[in-house]
Amino acid sequence: MSTPHETDVLVIGAGPSGVAAAVMAASLNLRTVVVEADSVGGKLHVIGALENVPGNWSSGPQLAEALAADLDRLQRAGRCSVVQGRAVSVTGYDDRAELVLEDGRALSAQLIVVATGVAALAPPDADWISASTGVSVPPLWRTEPADLTGRTYVLGGDRPLGTWLRTHPHSSTMLHVLCPPADDYKIAEVAGVERVRIVPVSHVVLSQMAHGDEWSLQVKDRQGERKSYVAKTVLNNLGNTPAGLDGLASSEDGYCPPDKQHPRIRVAGDLRSAQFQRVTTAQGSGAEAVLASYYASVLKPC
């Protein structure tokens, strides 16, 4: 006799991939529960421009509002429910998958789709930056052109750089982007942009000046030469670290490849790989996670 499940599909995270998974599951008449710790839409709320997303969306918050409306529509139709809570661990078994929340609650389902996304790195977390624990600089994506004073240095060449430039096309501020080798493939989209000066580096020592309103940057370039800079404005564009859960299999970079997980646990969205961090690929992976399990007979009737 099979073990009864509380639901068919548990989706962890209500960003683009999580909502896509919930919509797909509901369309297959699967009992669906979405677990979200914060707000529907996730990082969409801080994306100023969505140039590469089909559907004529102009900004992340606009798409986040539409995703919230999708979940609201499914809930009103009785096809989905949303649970507020922070997931901490998942476990796959032969006949079910289980989720444990931070408050101790445990939920079970035939399938769990983990779409927890990524969290922003801080300077002390980056292996090419030396900075005191607790040092924090403002994120690029939250910064308005009017906030930029003096020479502006950007730590890292992650993709929000291109998004910021598209969001603020009339800003004349030159962004001096300190770029480690690992970010070279990311900055191709801004190559040739007049408002960007790429500074290839191998290591940076970051510290705040004694009077507190300027930063010291001791930079070693890729040939080993050292230079010192003083800046009024330093911004964080270091990229992300995967926001995974206990119980997921991860690779050396901390991301969670889909093919390494238990058959009843699927990962979707940005969590899969640093190179798949796009809204459209996240949505496709969320829908695919449900469909693949559905056709593989993981989602069997209870």
TrEMBL record:
Gene3D superfamilies per the UniProt record, alphabetical: FAD/NAD(P)-binding domain
Lineage top rank: taxon: Bacteria
One Pfam family, short name: FAD_oxidored
SUPFAM superfamilies in UniProt: FAD/NAD(P)-binding domain (SSF51905)
Family annotation (InterPro entries): FAD/NAD-bd_sf (IPR036188)
Coiled-coil positions: none
PANTHER family: MERCURIC REDUCTASE
The protein's name: NAD(P)/FAD-dependent oxidoreductase
Organism: Streptomyces composti
